[in-house]
Amino acid sequence: MYDVAVVGAGPSGAAAARACAEAGLSVLCIEEHAAPGFPVQCAGLLSCRAFAGCEVSDRSVLNTVQGARVVSDRGAEVFFDAQETKAYVVDRALLDQEMAGDAACAGAEIWPKTAVVGREGGRLITRGASGRRDVEARMVIAADGPRSGMARMLGLARAPVYLSGIQADLPLDLDTRYVEVHPNAAPQFFAWVIPTGEGRARVGLCGTGGVREAFERFAARYPAGCTHLVTGTIPLGTMPRTYGQRTLFVGDAAGMAKPTSGGGVYTGVRAARHAAAVAVSCCEADDFSDRVLAAYERRWQADFGRELTLGMRLFRLRQELSAENIDSLLSTLADPDITDLIVKYGDMDRPGRLIRHLMTKPKVLRNIVTVAGPSVRVILKDLNFGVNK
């Protein structure tokens, strides 16, 4: 019997498996694909903080980014340059494989090409190349992605919103120091252009509906043509309860992607380490009751839960904005005093501080209140409006 079975060997699962193994627990990590990182379903843009949290070498780094250009289809534009590296463009397959390898080096056992197809009491039923194998584990950490089969097996509610994404790799000559964001290209979210190095970029977008049509319109701007088309799903809004029945849910399986960007590596890896700490406590006390497992939810909520709540408020506000509203807002944000704030306080992983500062600018507040008054008042309440220096 294993102490912990981790389902999924992406960044969240690998981080959980490694942390548990390093703490001395016996760990099995079950991965349905032949290798972690495939199929690729990520834009591969990680903040410096998120990349550092993965605790890997720089082998997966393709490019570094220091700023962004946010462009409206109607001509408004915001440009900011931090003059230092703010994010890494990575090869996600290499990143995931290195993290899984580190988990194995720490002592975790990895089963590739193996799917969890059922659960009976304390046993996981798996199927792989060698057929059915039953796994006994004292507890489970579910890191099995946005459509979590583990949540379905346990009858637990999942994320309330799912975004669909499409991305392609194509030849494109642009300044590799900056990403581009096109909010009007995807009415419910945004489109992006991420340089992967000299002469190439990832072009993609996310939305809740009409995504393929929107992508085809956006990609038509780039006549060189798209290659390596990939699709993916992003869950927004955490499941109502991220623990239960000897199981902890982490990363996309719990709906922990950031609603402001769609990225989930930072929150997923942090949640994985919180889950590992609770798993160690449970195994040491031989107590796997929901009362003890609840410590996991308290830990991640105290860490980044407020940012996810704010992010969902901002996501819903985004749904209320028309193309004209976005154009007006970008024109306001293009003020040099405001772009200086963005450079100083901007944070891909924790946007709350920047939002607080932006809301102290009368012209920004007036602009937002004009188009979405009730939603803004809720956001201000969430922020306990007042600026933390």
**What's the number of structural domains?**
2
**Average of pLDDT:** 93
Reported for the largest beta sheet, the result is: 8 strands, mixed
Low-pLDDT residue spans: none
Give helix and strand order, one letter per element, not per position.
Answer: EHEEHEEEEHEEEEHEEEEHEEEHHHHHH
Count of helical stretches = 11
Q: Give the helix proportion (percent range).
A: 25-40%
Would you identify the CATH architecture of the largest domain?
3-Layer(bba) Sandwich
User: What name goes with the CATH superfamily of the largest domain?
Assistant: FAD/NAD(P)-binding domain
How far apart lie the N and C ends? Answer: 51 Å
> If you consult CATH, what is the topology of the largest domain?
FAD/NAD(P)-binding domain
CATH class of the largest domain: Alpha Beta
DSSP, total strands: 18
Shape: globular
Beta-strand percentage range: 25-35%
Task: Supply the helix-strand structural class.
Answer: alpha/beta
Radius of gyration: 21 Å
What this model shows, in words?
This protein has eleven helices and 18 strands. With 389 residues, it is an alpha/beta fold. It has two domains: 304 residues, FAD/NAD(P)-binding domain (3-Layer(bba) Sandwich), CATH 3.50.50; 77 residues, no CATH class. A hairpin with a 2-residue loop joins strand 17 and strand 18. Helix 2 runs parallel beside helix 6, helix 7 packs antiparallel against helix 11 and helix 9 runs antiparallel to helix 10. It is globular and about 60 Å long. The termini are far apart. It holds the Pfam family Lycopene_cycl. GO terms for molecular function: FAD binding; oxidoreductase activity, acting on the CH-CH group of donors, NAD or NADP as acceptor. This is NAD(P)/FAD-dependent oxidoreductase. It comes from Methanofollis formosanus.
